[in-house]
Amino acid sequence: MTVSDGRRERKKAQTRARIQEAALDLFASQGYRETTIAQIAARADVATRTVTLHFPAKDDLLFADDPFTAESLERWLRERKPDTTLDAVRGWMHATMRELDERDHDSGVDPGLIWQRRALRARLLMADDDLRGRARAGYRDLELPIAEGIAEDLGLPADALLPRLTAATVVTGLREIYVTREGQAQARSAASDLSPLVDEVLAFAEAGLRGARPRPGA
């Protein structure tokens, strides 16, 4: 990649981020459904077509570029040691959170801004039926590899109740962090302040696994 290509990609990324910031601000102040693409373009100081080139659908403004992807989780799970699925999930969460903090620090952004934005995004998703449905579909993409890993740890089929229940507990707990009283209080600084809540979710799931007794032949 040439220097000019690199500069062009950075400018493109900055424009994309500015559009998402504008969209979040407007969604928060006047509502997701009440906000138009033209309003977002005006707030971001770009053409309407620029918004739709980056985000073809309005809900993409909330779902695109999420760093907590199923693909990155699956890489952590593939590289885990035996019987350490929940440890791998914990490591994935902490590593991704640190990367986000470092990215904001390197760009001169307030380290807590991304967590405030993610908390706002979570509230917007929970407030709209259609957005909530799309979010749940994405959560299932995270639940399935976790369930498969836990099943392998326990010597159970991937569709057995205990692995699926534990995976759903983990993903739901991690998702709920942003909208809980504790998460709202901590989402004003850095990832290190949210990390204990991640550990609390994983500890809850681990306690459930220890207390459960897999049924032979399940």
TrEMBL record:
DNA-binding region, residue intervals: 36-55
Kindly give the SUPFAM superfamilies that the UniProt entry links to this protein.
Answer: Homeodomain-like
Gene3D superfamilies per record: Homeodomain-like, Tetracycline Repressor, domain 2
Alphabetical keyword list: DNA-binding, Transcription, Transcription regulation
Source organism per UniProt: Amycolatopsis balhimycina DSM 5908
PROSITE patterns (UniProt xref): HTH_TETR_1, HTH_TETR_2
Q: Name one GO molecular function term.
A: DNA-binding transcription factor activity
Q: Which residues form the HTH tetR-type domain?
A: 13-73
Please give the name of this protein: TetR family transcriptional regulator
InterPro entries the record matches:
DNA-bd_HTH_TetR-type_CS (IPR023772), Homeodomain-like_sf (IPR009057), HTH-type_TetR-like_transc_reg (IPR050109), HTH_TetR (IPR001647), MftR_C (IPR041347)
Q: Coiled-coil intervals in this record?
A: none
